[in-house]
Amino acid sequence: MQAPDLRDTRLLVVDDDRQILRAAQIILKQHFAHIHTLDQPADLTHLLVQHEFDVILLDMNFAAGATQGEEGLRWLDVARRLAPGAKVILMTAYADVDTAVNAMRHGATDFVVKPWDNTRLLATVTAAARHAQSDRELRRLQDRQQVLDAHADAEQFPIHGESPALKSLLAQVGKVAATDATVLITGENGTGKELIARAIHRQSRRRDRGFFAVDMGALTESLFESELFGHRKGAFTDAREDRAGRFEVASGGTLFLDEIGNLRLSMQAKLLGALATRTITRVGSDRPIPVDVRLVSATNLTEAELGDPARFRQDLLYRINTITLKVPPLRERRDDIPLLAAHFADYYARRYGKPRLRIDAAAIARLREWPWPGNVRELRHVIERVVILSEHPVLRLDGVLPAEPPPAPRPREEDLPLNLDELEKLAIQRALARFEGNLSRAAQALGLGRSTLYRKMARHGVS
User: Fold this and answer.
1) CB-based contact 157:34 (threshold 8 Å)
2) CATH 3.40.50.300 region(s) of the chain?
3) What is the spatial distance between Cα 137 and Cα 286, in angstroms, rounded to a whole number?
4) Where in the chain is the domain with CATH 1.10.10.60?
5) DSSP alpha helix (H) spans, 278-360
């Protein structure tokens, strides 16, 4: 990894002698782009609250005739409290070993004697800047590892299925993964949108850099910026230490924003700003931090809901949906149900210490008929309950599923097409799905003769 440019280091020089401040600026500006000077130490508290610095050059004696350094040590304590990440270099014209040792004991990084040697001053500041930079990167890596550890024990299931709908989706995943294009994954709750996001990451160039998921639906507006962009110590009541946000820890890898459609418009505006500039600023900081993430988002909102400006910003939508992938509901991939059920049965048998289990044919038939409003997640929970309750190696569904399945979820009115031909096609598809391809029962439900249904299927291209 290329070392960050030290020119971006932020320096603060505090001295009541303006000639000293000018001299420091002349020497240091050739190597550092951001130098702030302060000739009134009383303003230091306000300045450190408002701005972030990497290195602080601090005089030890401000009052006339002072030589013992008590003032400098007092202001050093202030700097350590308000800017714990900054490296403080103390300056004095009255140097001795005891003063230097006392300064180090109070937390100073180094000590410079005035009048200074220019080469020595530059070397001291450069070393402190590198130290601050290394500490910042270490904290970012620690925050990154903390996020990874928090998700290490989460259940991860592979994608199972051979249905045409799933195969088509996975083929699209393979094409999209090789790029850095933003991807929006849509689909009902429980269809496995995060699994698709992880599949994109595993096949991408960023697969070795980490996958970081954020449940946007769980973020309150007050925690939104802190969670995504991070915060400085003291930025708010519970900010007890500097913390990197998810954009920062995911830099170089993939950031998955789940349930992005649940964000309020005010929060969407802040997210848009980060995506547009590819930089974030921690809460309580004035330092912009560049980030490099591959963004994958997911939502259960429909196309109509996403297209409603009162619900979702259209400029943000254009940023996140370079490619849109729709995950089909389980009722549209019923051929995958036996494979999924068998996989979950094996998984939970191992988890709960049971012998290898199989599902009897009658149970499989009932699973295939079930409408699964909760999709794959609901199927997984049903199989888990069956495994826990079963006392036999052959799994049955007695007492787990009701005798009669609930009606399949009806499309919401706003999702229905207005074109009559499209409505007729949709009605035929729903009837065939409900009756598992039984043409006689589908025709009866539609109020058509079997031959008429054949003709309409051919006209609409329904197989």
Assistant:
1) no
2) 164-326
3) 18
4) 417-460
5) 303-306, 314-320, 337-351
| Domain 417-460, classified CATH 2.60.40.10, yes or no | no
Whole-model pTM? 0.69
pLDDT (tens, 9 = 90+) of the chain, 463 residues, equals: 344 567 888 999 999 889 999 999 999 988 898 899 999 888 998 898 888 899 999 988 876 555 566 778 888 889 888 888 889 998 877 655 577 677 778 888 888 888 888 998 999 999 999 888 888 877 777 777 766 655 555 556 678 889 999 999 999 999 999 999 999 999 999 999 999 999 999 999 998 888 999 999 888 888 899 999 988 887 787 778 888 889 999 999 999 999 999 999 999 999 999 999 999 999 888 889 999 999 999 999 988 889 899 999 999 999 999 999 999 999 999 999 999 999 999 999 999 998 888 898 888 998 998 899 899 999 999 999 999 988 888 888 876 776 666 665 555 555 566 667 777 888 888 888 777 778 888 888 888 887 788 888 888 877 6
Q: Where in the chain do CATH 3.40.50.2300 domains reside?
A: 6-137
Residue bearing tokens 């919401």: 412
Strand boundaries in 190-260, DSSP class E = 211-215, 230-231, 243-244, 254-258
Selecting from 3.10.580.10, 3.40.190.10, 2.170.120.12, 3.40.50.300, what CATH number does the domain 164-326 have?
3.40.50.300
Residues with Cβ within 8 Å of 138's Cβ and at least 6 positions away in sequence, in order, are none
C-alpha distances in Å from residue 53, one per residue of 37, 85, 90, 92, 242: 12, 8, 15, 21, 13
- What SS3 string covers 64-128? CCCCCCHHHHHHHHHHHHHCCCCEEEEEECCCCHHHHHHHHHCCCCEEEECCCCHHHHHHHHHHH
Pick the CATH number of 330-395 from 2.60.120.650, 1.10.8.60, 3.40.50.300, 1.10.530.10: 1.10.8.60
CATH architecture under which domain 6-137 falls: 3-Layer(aba) Sandwich (3.40)
Q: Rounded to an integer, what distance in angstroms lies between the CA atom of residue 108 and that of residue 56?
A: 10
Retrieve residue 447's tokens.
């109020």
